[in-house]
Amino acid sequence: MASSATKIEGKTVTLEIFRYQPDDETEPRYDTFEVPYREDWVVLDAINWIKDEVDGSLSYRWSCRMGVCGSCGMMVNGEPKLTCAVFLRDYYPKPMRIEPLEHFPVTRDLVINMDDFMGKMEKLQTWIVPKEPRTIEEGEYRQTPRQLADYKQYTMCINCMLCYSACPVYGLDSSFLGPAALTLGRRYSLDSRDGAKDERAELIQSDEGVWSCTFVGECSRVCPKNVDPAGAIQAGKVEGTVDMMKSMLMPWGRK
Amino acid sequence: MSIPVYDVLIVGGGGAGLRAAIAVAQADPTQRVAVVSKVYPMRSHTVSAEGGAAGVIKDNDSAEDHCNDTIGGGDWLADQDAVEAFVEEAPKELIQLEHWGCPWNREADGSVAVRPFGGMKIQRTWFASDKTGFHMLHTLFQTSQQFDPVTRYDEHFVFDLLVHDGRCQGVACIELKTGEVRIIAGRSVILCTGGGGRIFPFTTNAAIKTGDGMGLAYRAGVGLKDMEFVQYHPTGLPGTGILITEAARGEGGILLNKDGRRYLQDHDLGSPLEVSDPRHPQLKSMELGPRDRLSQAFYWEREAGNVFTSDDGDYVHLDVTHLGEKKINKRIPFVRDTALKYVGVDCVKEPIPVRPVVHYMMGGVDTDIDAATSLPGLYAAGECACVSINGANRLGSNSLTELLVFGKRAGMGAAAFAKANPEVAVDALAAQVGDKAARLKSLYSEGREGEASIASIRRTLTSAMETGAGIYRDQARLDALCETLREIKARIKDLRITDRSKTFNTQLVQALELEFMVDAAEAVAFSASARKESRGAHQRLDFKERDDGAFLKHSVAFKSDGDPRIDYKDVSITKWPPAERVYGK
Question: Is residue B575 assigned to a domain?
């Protein structure tokens, strides 16, 4: 319904945007906007243009516009994307359909509610529980580049929620801890400074944890930071199996 | 309305805010802390910092050297007692972050690695590849989750500080999800809201950096200190302004003009060594000079017609090709990623186009060395504050450390204040908010049929700032800027608001942010107009020399009914008398 009143010179591209205002609407709708096409614009630039020039009521989150704050995840033509990191030129001249990330309750327009994830991080103790407490005066823990490499990749998660949006298991059952939270749990368990691996393992190996994953691998495919949550989850399964076998075959041994 | 009361209420959940929250929770688990942020904490702009955090850790380094570099780098406007405290506490805080899990880069023996940075005579910048701020923020946020006394109010926009009986006792905010106006009381309040780079059109700063905390304090009668000092980072990408970290030069990257000349040698920054020379890059020389001087060199190169031109503005080249793919991938992977994505340049093969871009505000809410402001119960830390350790020009990698040192100091100070001042006048706070809440409610239900769109006023503001208060300034341009700001203050009362929803009304937030931006811009413009000298990042074509006789002083801008009032206060000088700034010698 809303269409651009602003006259645009040069090439344009069409965005269909999901709109939903819980205050006074019961059904979501799609609004179509004609926006200027620029070679160097990311999808977020086009959305910002709409908000500034056409419809100031369009609601969405964004901030750093350089792919690191994790705010601006949306569905672009059915795929979860960071809208500051995909370009209009990747889609031109086809129209683009912009929707809120899937599998989350929609607060308004393109804004989703992600409280569920925040609680999951806390449950998984995503912080260092020191193996050997140390005072500041004793200086830093020694950690070799190789030990750093063991977990470094899993620290790169920006909590953008794209992996949850791509995960069919989470879509069916939101009690699944999900790719990012499990990966962050693993990040700390692999850190040479940490001593809470066993505590985390209980949750990681539970029904909400790695065993719910059916290894579709979509999470790793959509991850904008190449964190590979699917890899982290599979490694968690292997580890759980090895621990279980050990405890069956060598019940006297250390878990 | 039920009003929650906290001992310490922190506005902002970036590096400084989270460090403050943890400090309170660790010092006294009986004290309750609220972190009120307009975004989820891990979205805060600390996340975008790249290069690293300075702290003396290696045997070849000393506190004396770090002080020396910082004070000279700040063109002697930093308070030297504050710098000494900062330098002393810096390594402790960085080790603390290490204990909390920050993935610092390491030497082969497992100790933390350091890298060179601009204006620093000795390598002392701790780093987590080139995403140091990201890792620090996520480490702090994840660590903070274990402390039960810390309650988060995510996505709550603070629009007013509540002052009663001469004490700051809380805030009024909008819960974005519901649009409800909430009052949150605090026996003490800490502002950790970051800077306001968005008052300029071309900035590395994220969208959220609209000077909110500066505006809140300013309206409550607290002074904004040294606001005329705005740092241009010499290497932003043309078009977007996305930052290419100084670490690219720390690792050996060089700056070239359109003739392929390392032009910094023509601007009193030393003489270049061959990139193959093992002594390259030389500390405190050429590409490792301070940011203000490098950005000023660009200005003169452009005047001389020595830069490239494009639709996205003029630029020079940052060349890292000689570092080779392996080193680039290991030490500055995000640089490669970013340049490839946003300007289509693979820096392994060709130079990156760069130009100066507004990056950091040295000025901010006037605080003392313990992060306390002149308003009892109100503290400030991080970029929104001005202690000042940065003086007229901040050295790269001092600000991430500043978040920690002064975040912690603010937390400790605020906690002690709360203990000594337990009474909170909840009813009086509620009465204060009544009118403002009613005004916001009417905006939701009726909108406002104003003449001026948010985007058009924002454009007028930012472009006036660039023209009037850019890298070089003069009286005529500053006068024009001040006049434009007076007009904007009149027009902003007639802002058009079309979004009438209470749910996640980002247009209303933008309008409130724009009002804060105007406060910050006014303080910058009038302070710059009054400072008739050149020092650090404040360069005047009509007053080219530093004038210690008249201006070895902090400016402090106070809000008034008309133009702001500009006062001055003394700089603390302990051991380092003002001298000439020398680089490359």
Answer: no
